[in-house]
Amino acid sequence: RKYPEQSKECAELTALISSQITRLTALTAELMDMSKLDCSGYHESVEIETVLSNVVDDLSVLLHEKQIAVTFAFDGVKSIPGNANLLYRAFYNIIHNAIKYSDANTGILIATKFAASKVIVQIADQGYGIPDGKKADIFAPFYTETPKEGSNKDGLGLGLAITKAIIDTHNGAIEIENNDLKGTIFKISLPCT
Q: Beta partners for 72?
């Protein structure tokens, strides 16, 4: 009699299928989001510092789990024209990755400032960093970085592609720099008008 083993195999197969269905559902949702970017309106007044604070609030559980401290250095940026939901999504993706690719007990700095009719948002983590040769690749759809040994970095490779598309549709720009401390700085510039 092999009923217990067959039952175990069946349960494992069911769990695998369920996991893949969840992954495909998430992939479909991400692809649908990308296809809708060109159809969205960008005429509301967005308080960018509020959006950034809301993202951090929504990620507080992950921050607490890894004991990552967030420091804000806001320059009193009032608002920019845009779509608050899309900008939330763009900053969520970046900050979520900063948490995901950082070791425990590190920090993330989120800063805003005005510069030449633009708002500059900098998100600096103390994570693993991104090699110079891969910086352009991370915005390509389905690009994923090899996880650090012993870490769980499961992802679809669409988050930063969506982020770049959102920033582009807001006539902005996104750059990646090395953090002198360790890690990466994402620098996003968005027009004030």
A: 110
Q: pTM of the full predicted structure?
A: 0.76
Per-residue pLDDT for 186 more than 50? yes
Distance CA 184, CA 125 (A): 6
* 82 close to 120: Cβ distance less than 8 angstroms: no
Tokens of 158: 């669409």
Residues 6+ apart with CB under 8 A from 90: 162, 163, 166, 167, 188
**Average pLDDT rounded to a whole number, residues 108-128:** 91
Residue whose C-alpha is closest to residue 174's, from 33, 165, 37, 183: 165
Q: Which residue has the tokens 């988050």?
A: 159
- Interval 84-107: pLDDT, tens: 888 988 999 999 989 988 889 999
CA distance 159 to 27: 10
**Residue 1 pLDDT:** 46
Nearest to 98 by CA among 143, 161, 56: 56
Contact 46, 79 (CB under 8 A): yes
Pairing of strands 173-178, 184-191: antiparallel
Share above pLDDT 90 across residues of the chain, in percent, rounded to a whole number: 35
Helices 84-100 and 48-58: crossing angle in degrees, nearest 10, is 50
Contacts of residue 129, Cβ cutoff 8 Å, sequence gap at least 6: 178, 179, 182, 183, 184
